Amino acid sequence: MRRLSFIAPLFLLLLGGAFLTAQERVDVDMAARIRTAGLQRSQAPALYRTLTDELGSRLTGSPEHMRAAQWARDRFAEWGLTNAHLEPFEFGRGWTLEKIAVEMTAPRYMPLVAYADAWTPSTAGVVSGRVVYVGDKSASDIQALAAQLRRAIVLTHLPQTQFVDGDRPQPGLDNRPVATGNPVLPSARSTTPPEQLASLLKNAGAAVALKPSAYRDGTVGVVGNRNTAPDAVPSITVAGEQYNVLARLAAAGQAVEVRVELRTRYQEADRNTYNVIAEIPGADPAVRDEVVLVGAHLDSWHTASGATDNADGVAAVMEAMRILKELGATPRRTIRVALWSGEEQGLLGARAYLAQRFADQAARDKLAVYLNDDPGSGKTLGFYMEGNTAAKAIFDAWLEPLRDLGATRNIIEGIGSTDHVPFNDLGLPGFNVIKDFDAYDERTRHTNADFPERMSEDELKQSAIVMATFVWQAAVRAAKIPRAGEAVPSAR
Ligand SMILES: [Zn+2]
Fold this sequence. Notes:
Blueprint: E1 5-7, E2 13-15, E3 18-20, E4 24-26, H1 28-40, H2 44-55, H3 63-78, E5 82-90, E6 94-106, E7 110-111, E8 114-116, E9 126-133, H4 139-144, H5 146-149, E10 153-155, H6 194-204, E11 208-212, E12 235-238, H7 240-251, E13 257-267, E14 272-280, E15 291-297, H8 307-326, E16 334-340, H9 348-357, H10 361-364, E17 367-372, E18 377-384, H11 389-399, H12 421-425, E19 430-436, H13 440-444, H14 457-476
Parallel strand pairs: 9-10, 10-11, 11-12, 15-16, 15-17, 17-19
Antiparallel strand pairs: 1-4, 2-3, 5-14, 6-7, 6-13, 8-12, 9-13, 14-16, 18-19
The chain binds zinc ion.
């Protein structure tokens, strides 16, 4: 029989090994079993390694993302989850990088750290010649240069002088209120506004456009626009310091020559992309149609392995499900896992799923809670509570058996920019884990440096244990998690 404990942060009584309080019951036996499985038999490091080293980048709509989604679905099926499948939504064409080489060839030879913006077209074979610098030119100046710009390699931006030099505040540092949200990042600057610049270069028939990254020391931040026209001027982002060498020399009138070869491919055969969905069915007839949903986005940007964004979150969520199956868990409510696609293009997978599965209030009433694992890296410190004080009291109790693993603090503030947001927008209780931002903003997020070294094996194991424990408590709790602002009956 399951041993339940009652935990409240204000008055804890220890009776016969069980926590007893007036507010919240916690299944401490199951928490202990999850911890043992998660520490002694963890597959989280192996899952993370496969996601990063073997599967690699997972741009939405790419064959690489599809391969990762199928791999994840097959793991869920292999572990015995129910109804493991890919759930489509329309996305548009995918894109793959097949070849890029960017080199300065005069006044001397220097290979450049450079990446294609996602969804940019190919160059017309190998392009080489003297660069044209227009970073300091007005639109009319650029128009006057039209003849020179034909088939040219163009430096479109000013030398980069402002760099990403810090991370957003570390939520794990102390108990002060946490400022959340994406940091304000410096970007590349041009004298002519970017859209106008793009059309001027296209009309002039430029061969390729180079611009600087705002990250330091060879770190290149690259994203891309899925609506890029197939006849746009190919766009490449160069390491900031290297771009500056080219731009300074060219601005000083020196003959700078560059050779570029860029080959990309649009993936048009399937205009859908896919969320990965699987379940552990609920066993209690009274509440088994209620859903505890846990998820993370599987898609990433294309220049590295998407390790902190977001293979670590995916590994934690997958391992949480694996642990629950290994333990033969029979939850009261249904536990469902979702590995979202299209997060990086605007939380598209979560939004599509809500539109497909939670379109009406009757369906929404069946969602017990949504737990998401995305921004930051390292161990899970707790959850952002999105201003929901009633839910925070419950989550605080659930942290008790996890404190010695470093999960010590839920904070009342919220965090934006990831897949729990559209749940909250519908009034549903969606929460994201708290992780630290150590080198996340200035080094790994959306860069060519997002490789697996940032996470330790212990942090991966811990993240999975915390997630499995929270998922389990939500799945056996007496009531669903209260919606923000909802009056809460006693949980007992
Ligand atoms: Zn991201």
